[in-house]
Structures
1.
Amino acid sequence: MKKITFLMIGLATMLSQTVTTQAQVTPPQGVEPAMYVFNGHDTYVDRDKSFEVQIVMDGDQVYIQGLSEYYTAGWVQGTLADDVLTIPAAYMGTFNFWGDEYALDFDGATFAYDATANTFSAPDGYTTSVEGEVLDEFVNVTLTGAVAQAATPAQPTITEFTQDNYGYYIKMDIPVQDVDGNDLYASLLSYQMYYMKDGQVHEYVLTQDNYIFQEVESLTEVPYTYTDSYDVDEGGKQVYLYGDDIDQWTAFGVKSIYRGGDEVNESPIFWYQLVETGCADINAAQVTNTRYVDLQGRSVSGDARGLLIKVERLADGTVRTTKVVR
């Protein structure tokens, strides 16, 4: 398989000339998607993967959302006949990665459908590509229908509240488990942030004025799986904060919310006390540690393929992040 070798700078301009002429798959309105669990093997990193996808079945037409790890909003459409689902090559959509846009294509696949087990299976798997270069690459893929039970999510924690070259940010640990340690479905989990000022609790709202790559006007409750590939990492692993009065905040909080089994359950708010948020001027410093993470925030090797974030820790304790594509 070919590796992605294009440079990110200037790619958005090139893609804008091709994206506008392609039709994006959308499911029919009024049909509720069903949640399925993806299990498959990523042949490039030689690792099993598991995540959630959404499926809409409308007669013999089947729509699947989330087959790409890099653009979970993208849909594909196939025809089901004699328990075989055939999905042709199709344009999945344009996703934003740190301000640049990338057109993503699904390269086609065939799934065997088992109505009794409620599964779709594709031993040969499938690939997705950007400008003809492979991005996702899976084999031994099975999509299994899932039923979510009601559960109370475990309390999240804030592990860091600090400042770097770009501004203030927090790092959070939001468990995808309930209070008893059982796994939850990430697509049904969300989190909400708060700050305390002058003894009053305020909701922290993500607005388009500050989060310029956000597609909706405002977000108060943030889906666990949400990322704008710029200021907000999936799972709240790192979120940049905006506000003229951050230095007046005395605490910052977060709670988890889970919607399963026709119930909405919340964790207690975890509060991170802010003794002092002001920082001295940040100057250039020697790099003491370098690591790479993927879009899901997982550590990967420096030669891993795909869209990565290079994280450098400087001698003065600050962190510098840059985007990398291979």
Note: Residues 1-21, 277-285 have pLDDT under 50 and may be disordered.
2.
Amino acid sequence: MENTFSNLERAEVLTQALPYIKKYSGKTVVIKYGGNAMINEDLKQQVMEDICLLWLIGVKVVLIHGGGPEISETMKKLGKKSEFVNGLRVTDRETVDIVQMVLAGKVNKTLVNLIQMKGGHAVGLSGIDGGILEATMKDEALGYVGEITKIRTQPITDLLEKNYIPVISTIASDRQGNTFNINGDTAAACIAGALGAERLIMMTDIAGLLRDKDDPSTLIPAVTVSEAKQLFEEGIISGGMIPKVDCCIEAIEKGVRHVVIMDGRVPHSILMELLTDEGAGTMVLGD
């Protein structure tokens, strides 16, 4: 496709982004990365480009990733069936070993490698490294699914100060050395809160918060915590969106300034959210 942008138009796009570059330079932005944007190779490349561009203009980016489809695929290859209860993977001892291998190994290092190929400097960590995430068993019926009990931000802030992009997989440990699988949205909310992040971006497979879940034109561009609680009561927030919005509210209550639920399937949605007037998805704000 022929590039129709003139040099003048490119210059104008950059000058329009200038106020946003000034706003976010030096600030911490946490990105929760998962869903379709992680499976589609073109989207994955674009997400890494967005992250590198933000890093180059001085934004302190922390990337927190899941890897559910990769875990399920690996379990299938090993002849093990995936089971879910209320959206959480039932995780026995064998499964938690697979989760650790896939998340902290293959997925984490692939993302680190991609960022570095795009010109960024990244370091891969898991929640176990430096004791970033300490957890306890959430529910015996779920096995080694963890509930976060403690967060240590020092390893993350040390990397940010040295101008690295921390790439964090969501596994945790306890004082007895057990490993736990942690829900990615929950981990992102807790880490963003502990870092006092300017913004938490939750990448999903839908346009954002919709008044009618089947109609993308009913997107709610912004909602306060109290308005979100009202939408719960009205049944507008339902199904898989309930835990996601709960995590957004938790992040705001823990000190994050703004949380955005956005469609990770839209190319360069991160840049649209942070560097344009229009933004992307639904912003959750404090009251």
Note: The chain is about 45% helix and 20% strand.
